[in-house]
Amino acid sequence: xxxxxxxxxxxxxxxxxxxxxxxxxxxxxxxxxRTLQLIKGLYVDEVDAxxxxxxxxxxxxxxxxxxxxxxxxxxxxxxxxxxxGNFEGIGISFNMVTDTLYVxxxxxxxxxxxxxxxxxxxxxxxxxTLIAGVKxxxxxxxxxxxxxxGTVVEVxxxxxxxxxxxxxxxxxxxxxxxxxxxxxxxxxxIGYIRLSRFGMSSANEFKEAEQAxxxxxxxxxxxxxxxNGGGILQTANEIANEFLGDEKLIVYTEGRNQPRxxxxxxxxxxLNGGKVVVLVNSNSASASEILAGALQDWDRxxxxxxxxxxxxxxxxxxxLPDGTMIRLTVxxxxxxxxxxxxxxxxPGDPDGYQQDFVxxxxxxxxxxxxxxxxxxxxxxxxxxxxxxxxGGGGIMPDYFVPMDTTNGTMLHAHLNANGVINKIAIxxxxxxxxxxxxxxxxxxxxxxxxxxxxxxxxxxxxQAVTDDVEWDEDQFLKSRPLILxxxxxxxxxxLYDSSAFFRIINEENEIFREGLRIISDGQRYEGLLxxxxxxxxxxxxxxxx
Length: 545
Known about the structure:
Number of strands: 21
Oligomer: single chain
Number of domains: 4
CATH class of the largest domain: Alpha Beta
Mean pLDDT: 86
Structural class: alpha+beta
CATH superfamily of the largest domain: 2-enoyl-CoA Hydratase, Chain A, domain 1
Shape: globular
Helix content: 40-55%
Distance between the termini: 66 Å
CATH topology of the largest domain: 2-enoyl-CoA Hydratase, Chain A, domain 1
CATH architecture of the largest domain: Alpha-Beta Complex
Radius of gyration: 27 Å
């Protein structure tokens, strides 16, 4: 009995000894602490110990990989908000036009809608503080409008047709952040869904959009992940599950201190049949690449566009005692065939990592698929049709779409940078909202029948001069179709919603148009799934990551 008790005591002692030793300061940790104490005690000027500590942490993490980072309290909040799917505020989206807050959209069921705020309203005062005409920046305005649920903000609003300022008392509440930018029917049986991020509510949003389109006759889907920078891994898993059969592997992760962890489909998805095209580009990253890679590996979808970003490192969020956090890379993502998504990087050289986009451009990758080279060591075979795919840096699409720069001009870039096109769109809707809605009761009617007038184009030129944008008529003629299409799309967004914007802007989106051609041609679609008809050569021997 004594021997038994002694064994228990020794076991407990060893357990706590090992646990305690994990938190004992290492010689390196003691060295950092000693350096901080010496600086605080002897340095010639007063120092901010918190700022020094944060600089040291950032410096350490910078030496690891491009995605291990330190976040202070404000950065933690900013990072979590779009992923959590809600924030606390008044429920509007707005634009600052000539130093005045212009309401673009009022979120349905939100606090502003409940008190009668309307699109087109201009906020003049917030809590007796003048915000119009004082060159207030967007973050300053946001800070005044957002606040804890249940708190009150008083606003005074100028509304077209109403001579006096209107006063509203708005009680802040939780406001949903949506991640579906657009969902609409492209044809009788082809639907389109655009997802901007993988947040906590994104899977439910996707399922709701999918169900709504299925009720309208959708049998095939164009799923747009261009410019989607990723988000929550579990959300990507839930959405991938809509496309894959029971127990099919979606992704696995593995690291030096992290055992292999797999995510499999449950086979409950409603999109197990029908054609699927996934649109991607160089800004599609992380969870977007996981989803695209899983569907590609299982030959479930045709991937169309340009090579994705190449973020295949798993970060774990580790809170620190003062409310700050480090995001530490603990593992790598692998697609079902075993491909690593992560592009090469040099530890301690984040600038070189960010330079990759420029390198791709200079190598001609955005314009010619043959400029992309993968070594044979990165060759993999898909799980159903046994076609060749490559790892080692992003997802290479099954059909490459070059970037179209034929309509691009510096004039167009300057008009965008100075918000000129957006100002004209807002002004037009502000003046003619009711008239436009009578003529075009929905986004489909607007898309089919509305034409930007010469008078509106002339106002665009006048606004450019007002905003000190140098006008070049030759450049305008070159970019005119794209500029006027963008103007039409922005007007549609202000009148209806973001789906209306993408319905129109996709008319000249080369990746969307190619995806639509592929999904509309059953023979071509099936050929790409068998590895026939791709315009990307799989005979490369050199690597230009």
